[in-house]
Amino acid sequence: MGPSVPGGALSGRSLPAEAVKDIVPNRVMTWNLCNPCDASNLDRAAEIAAQAPQVIGVQEACARDVDKIRDYLEAYHGLVYHVAYGTVLQNWGRCGGAPWNPGGFGQAILSAAPMTDPVKAEYPEGGSEDRGYLAVTTEVGGRSVRVFNTHLAQRRQEEFREGQIRVLAAEVGRHERAVVVGDFNAVPDAAELDPLWALATDADPQCRPATGGTCEPTTDWRSKFDYVFLRGIAPIDHRVVRTRYSDHDMLYSDLDVT
Questions:
Q1: Residue 201 and residue 210: Cα distance in Å, rounded?
Q2: Using one digit for the tens of pLDDT, what is the confidence trace for 130-169?
Q3: How far is it, in rounded angstroms, from Cα 183 to Cα 227?
Q4: What whole-number distance in Å separates Cα of residue 120 and Cα of residue 101?
């Protein structure tokens, strides 16, 4: 887990009720922040605040950027989030810092409710860059839910994604109720996603492997690479939110966790 602010304050403190009054309690979102991209964390925080999800998984995230986004969400929007980090590598080129102390790069989960039982895992084979997943237990719609956030190998590395999905699906299958978000770098009918489709459904009821053409795109190159997969949970609504601050759009779903 780790500190949620640059000053080192722990992320597990109590949340004042007035700070979370605008958060949508059953909304889960995913967003690849794009790195390297010329976007300010103040703008990123404003984009997130406009949707006010209960839980958001971000990918291509530098830990220092997540710290700042979290601070801006509280300072400028009154939204208080706990943070869990899924750093998979230390990278000076992507995340800055001193050459001997580069910033952490990977996934992160922000949740309005406390998070427990964090698991940070790197896939045995990442492809051209280390990849992994982050899992936590937190609250969505008033119920306890296991949430996974992942970023799979790059577009033309199907053989690596196939192995990564097998690892991820084995963990997801251990839970009766789970949400899996992330950038999968694969379209819905890509064969490597089959093990996850066998366990979960997309938040968009019209999006299925056999009908990939009906899935709304989530990237600037008009492909669907970003997902909110649901296991044991029903979707109420979903939306792709266009943004100029990344080459991936934000995707969220409002869920019926009962």
A1: 13
A2: 999 999 999 999 999 999 999 999 988 999 999 999 999 9
A3: 7
A4: 20
**Three-class DSSP labels, 210-251:** HHHHHCCCCECCCCCCEEEEEECCEEEEEEEECCCCCCECEE
SS (H, E, C) 157-178: CHHHHHHHHHHHHHHHCCCCCE
- The model's pLDDT over 55-89, given as tens digits with 9 standing for 90+, comes to 999 999 999 999 999 999 999 999 999 999 999 99
Q: Percent of the chain having pLDDT more than 70?
A: 91
Name the 3-class secondary structure at 143.
Answer: strand
Q: Report yes or no: 90 and 96 within 8 Å, Cβ to Cβ.
A: no
**Residue 164 in tokens:** 């990564």
**0.85 exceeded by the pTM?**
yes
As beta bridge partners, residue 147 has: 136, 179
User: 26: buried, middle or exposed (CB in 10 Å: 19+, 13-18, 0-12)?
Assistant: buried
Structure tokens at 56: 């958001």
Structure tokens at 31: 């967003």
Bond from prior residue into 36 cis (ω within 30 degrees of 0): yes
Do strands 234-241 and 97-98 pair parallel, antiparallel, or not at all (unpaired)?
unpaired
Which is more confidently placed, 92 or 107? 107
